[in-house]
Every structure is written in structure tokens, then in C-alpha cells.
Amino acid sequence: MKVKISSFCCCSATISSVPGFIIFLFDFHIHQLVSAQFRVIGPDQPVTAIVGEDIVLPCHLSPRMSAENMEVIWFQSQLSQFVHRYSDGKDQTEDQTPEYQGRTVFLRDSIANGSVSLRIHNIRPSDEGQYRCFVQSLTFYNEATLELKVAALGSDPQLSVEGYQNGGIRVVCQSIGWYPEPQVLWRDPSGQHLPSLSETSRVDDDLFEAQTTVIIRENSNQKLSCCVWNSHFNQEKESTIYVSDVFFPKVSLWIVALCVILVVLFVCIGLVVYLFKMKETLAAELRWRRVLTHSENVIVDPDTAHPQLILSEDWKRVRWGDTRQDLPNNPERFDSRACVLGHEGFTSGSHYWEVEVGDGRGWAVGVARESVKRKGWIKRNPEEGIWAVDYEWSGHYRALTSPRTCLPLSEVLRKLGIYLDYERGQVTVFDADKEAPIFTFPTASFNRERVFPLLWLWGTESELRLCS
User: Which of 112, 119, 72, 79 is nearest to 95 (CA)?
Assistant: First the structure.
């Protein structure tokens, strides 16, 4: 009986302790998780590094605990492109950002005390920015952010006198090797800032070179200083120069009189040149107006017309035909491009004619040299002897230059005027309804050949008519 009672008591004690054991395990696990939480702490203020030197980015865990078996990642913008990564007790450099390869060292001396700092060798201006220190254990992770500022103190300002300008002496201040871009100031002996004439800066190997210029006058501020200031370090470098009055030019009365005479002479010459140009401009305007009011009576030459083109009996109207006509293949006729030339060519003088273009698309009007290619494929540009404006299927007007020039016209053209000045090598296309020029080709090269009016169609609904 005693044995049974003892066995029963032992079993009952074991059963009654199971809930307590479970509660103990759960409490122990929660305790482990809470104890595994930590903060990642970096510096509150930006860390400043000098170009070419090394810098340590400090970071540690709080409370202090070993980070040997944790994963530590230093990165800037994206976690996938890291600056340095420590995992499984060693450095992982397979996916390290290329510009940091061979330049980073993870400091493990105090890793058992929670230090996860990183050293970067040979600091560059491109290293400047925000860094994130990410630490992850098996059950928890956290990160800290710190800012790295990069600075470089450049050379002492070099001052040089570079001649006379605007009645004074031009002094230049130059300094190289700064980062970030420095501020350059001129000061007079009392410390007051002087306005600079010009300031320039450029980047060489990511470092700035600053140059500024000032003009000093006689009897004022001959002694002046050039100061170059770095905002990150709040430090400056300064150089001083003194220019004596003996270096300022002395102006005599006869030199002043000579200058006045030269100025008056140049003004007179300029006025004569201006009047001469105005006379030429007015003459050209008058000549153009005279030509505009006496337009040419242009007709087409049927011997040059492509077989697909249908000509009216008066040789004034040209439209696209549905079938190819059986016409003699004479040397003057176009056989691949649906073109036709005017009956009369021009070898001198100024000429003007008008063409109604209707509502259709797929046409070009202008002029062509007599030697323009008639057989086979023809390029539509001045190099081939064609100066024209077209209206393509997309609804855009273009000048057929090389390359094409788009004409920003807001309204649809109904009638075009073609103005040819043979001696000047000038071809201008007008909106004849408004008497407004649309495009003037650069000086054309006619090579002393005859120049003919040109009509060109490639649209089935297009029709061109020469105005009387």
C-alpha cells in the first residue's frame, strides 16, 4: 500500500507541474526575445572627413552586446548595393559597390562589446552623403543613420596682375583643390567686401578650382586681400597684394583729344556703312515689291512631265492620274518621280510666280536647276539642284533642306508665291494670300545654269495650278 501511494503521489506531482513548466518555458522565451532587442547608435552630428585621408564611421549597439554572430551591413541608398557587409563571422565582398572595393575595413577589435564601426580609406568627394548602419540578429534587427561630410582645403590663393581694364588694374585670384565649392571674397584694408568683376569655378578630379577678378582704381583700395572659405571646416585661406599708384596709367590731354577724334571718326564710318546697307536693303525691298506686282506667266513643259501626271490644255494645271500614260521616254522626262518643270527657264534677273496648292497633301513646289536628275530616284535637296517646300501626308510643311526644316505654320496654305533672285542666289517661298515670307533658302548655287519652276506630286488627291 505504501508503494502505491508513493507512486500515485509522484505521478500526481508530475502532472500538476506540467502547466507550470509550460509557463516557465514561455516566460523564458519572452525573456530571451526581450533581452535580444537592442538599439543601433551612431553619432548625432555629421562626421567630417578630409579628401585623401581615412575616416571611421562610428556605430555601436546599446546595450553593449557581442555582434560577432550578427549580420552588419553598411549602405547608402539601397540595401542591395552595400558599402560593406559582415556576416557569418567574416566580410562578404561579393556584391560590394565597385567604388568601395578595397577601401573599407570592418573594425572587429571591439565587436564583442557591440562596436560595428567601419573605416573608409582614401576619402573621395563622391563618398559624401548619408550612411545607414544595419544590424540583424536571429530574432531582431535595427539600424542607425549618420551623415558624412567631405571637405578639402585647397591651395593658398595666388594673386596676379593681368593688365589694365576699364581705367583700372585687373587683379586675378586663383586657388585649386577645394571641396565643396568654396566662397571667394575680396576685402579692402578695413575688412569690407569688394564686388568682384567675375567669378568662375570648375571641377578637376571632383575638386573645385575657383577664380575671381577685381578691378582696382587709382587712390582707392590698392591694398586688398583675396579670401577663400570652406563652409564644412569654417576655415579660410587668404593672400594680400598691394598695387602702387605708379602702376596706374597717366592720361594726357592730347591722348584724350585723339581718343575723342577716333571715336567721332568711327561713329561717322559706322553711320556711312549703316546708311549704305539701308540703301541696299531699301533697293532690294523695292525690287522685290516691283517683281511681286508683276508676276510671271508660268506654264509647264509637257516634255518633262512624269507619265502619271495629267496636264490641262493650257498647261497651267497638274494633277495625279490613275493610270500611267504611254508617253515618249525622251531625255527631258522624269520617269520615277512625279515631277514637271516650267516651260521657260531663267538665267538672270528677279522672277515671281504663284501656285494654288488646294486642299490636298503630298506636293512640293519650288525651283530646280536644268541639270537636275530626270531618270531614276531623285533626292529632294539643294545638293541635287532642287529648292522647294512640301506638304507631307502627316500634315506638316517642310523646307527641303539637308536635313529637312519643319515650318511651324498654324494655318493651311492655299496659294504659294515663289521668288527667285538669280544674281543673289536667293529662293524665297511666300504665303501669297498674306504676302508673308515662309522660308528663304541659304544662298543657292545655280552654277550658271538655267533655273526652272518645279511642281511635284505624290498624293492622289493633290492638284497644283499655276496662277495667271
Answer: 79
For residue range 33-69, list pLDDT tens digits in order. 444 699 999 999 999 999 999 999 999 999 999 999 9
- Per-residue CA distances from 49 to 118, 125, 126, 340 (Å): 13, 9, 12, 77
Question: Which of 83-87's residues contact partners 24+ apart within 8 Å by CB, and which partners?
Answer: 83/118, 83/120, 83/131, 84/118, 86/116
**Structural contact between residues 143 and 193, judged by C-beta atoms closer than 8 angstroms:** no
CA-to-CA distance for 451 and 427, rounded, in angstroms? 11
**C-alpha span between 404 and 416 (Å, rounded):** 19
Number of neighbouring beta carbons within 10 Å of residue 97: 16
Q: Check if the beta carbon of residue 313 is closer than 8 Å to that of residue 353.
A: no
Q: Which residue is listed with cell 541659304? A: 442
Three cell numbers written together for 257 = 583729344
What proportions of the chain, in percent to the nearest 5, are helix, strand and coil?
A: 20, 40, 40
For 160-166, the CB contacts below 8 A with 24+ separation are 161/241, 161/243, 161/247, 164/249, 165/215, 166/215
Grid coordinates standing for 6? 508513493
Q: Which residues of the chain fall short of a pLDDT of 70?
A: 1-36, 78-80, 198, 200, 218-222, 244-253, 281, 283-293
Rounded CA-CA distance 264/99 in Å is 65
Helix (H) or strand (E) holding 415: strand 415-421
In the three-class reduction of DSSP (H, G, I as helix; E, B as strand; rest coil), residue 391 is classed as strand
Model pLDDT, residue 73: 94
| Positive/negative CA dihedral, 121, 127, 130, 136 | negative
- Give 138's contacts (C-beta < 8 A, 6+ positions apart): 36
